[in-house]
Amino acid sequence: MSFFTSLSGLKAAQTDLNVISNNVANTNSTGFKKSRANFGDLFAAAPTQTTKTVAGQGVRLTGITQQFTQGTLQATEKTLDLAIAGDGFFSVRGQPPRQDLTFTRNGAFSVNVDREVVDTTGAKAQLLPVDANGVATSNNIADMFDFILPEFDPGDPTALLTNIGINGEGVVSATFSNGNQINIGAMAMASFTAIEGLRPVGDAHWQSTGDSGPPQINQAANGPLGQVRSGSLELANVDITEELVSLIAAQRNFQANAQAIETANTLSQTVINLQV
């Protein structure tokens, strides 16, 4: 029995090492959220047995959860580099044909050849319609639209785009060569009832699940969404010192379980030799 108990410990320690290693590897990944492995003990006893005489049967993985704590904001001075000071997510939609809606904290946006504002995966940033005062007129997913930079003033085709600005509420304003300024829309921000239930899909992107609940869409500065910081990026929330200490602990745990297996093997071999 000690073989299987220690084997479960080895597997648990290996999983812990894998999780910590992934955290360390993504220290420089923009918008990355560290994970933590959670474990529980295994115990089984028949109704006729007293639990005072039954040992546990090892450990099992109960789940790997991501920690959505705020990461450090780093200034970049680039307008389309966006960070969130709060709990919200940017809403982005993938390219055709699938056009999956995902959510990210990685606000390193850029402009493609079609003047679409896209993230590092090529997914298009989504906006909500706003009125002249920059207040969102809808918070429905169906009303979101792609963030596309206008080439000229809609009311004056001779006036070219000269500047783009994004304020703390995520409102995108465009300024043209004729001095006119219009609000294009507001960054579509999402929050979730159970954020730990989100499904990671890589590149600091997540999808909503039944466990997370549907996305609650609104513009920034509403509820837990937080504010948008233009000209900044959110760094990974990984404390490298903490991770290295955890790495040492996981390594010692692995070695201890390996030693327990070796000891059990020695005892078994000794018993066999005595019987012979």
From TrEMBL:
Domain Flagellar basal body rod protein N-terminal: 5-33
Domain Flagellar basal-body/hook protein C-terminal, residue spans: 230-274
SUPFAM superfamilies in the record: Flagellar hook protein flgE
Family the entry assigns: Belongs to the flagella basal body rod proteins family.
Descriptive protein name: Flagellar hook protein FlgE
Predominant cellular place of this UniProt entry's protein: other
NCBIfam families: FlgEFG_subfam (TIGR03506)
Native source organism of the sequence: Parasphingorhabdus litoris
Domain Flagellar hook protein FlgE/F/G-like D1, first and last residues per copy: 83-174
Keywords, sorted A to Z: Bacterial flagellum, Cell projection, Cilium, Flagellum
Pfam family, one: Flg_bb_rod
Described purpose of this protein according to its UniProt entry: A flexible structure which links the flagellar filament to the drive apparatus in the basal body.
InterPro entries in the cross-refs: Flag_bb_rod_N, Flagellar_basal_body_rod_CS, Flagellar_FlgE/F/G, Flg_bb/hook_C_dom, FlgE/F/G-like, LlgE_F_G-like_D1
Cellular localization per UniProt: Bacterial flagellum basal body
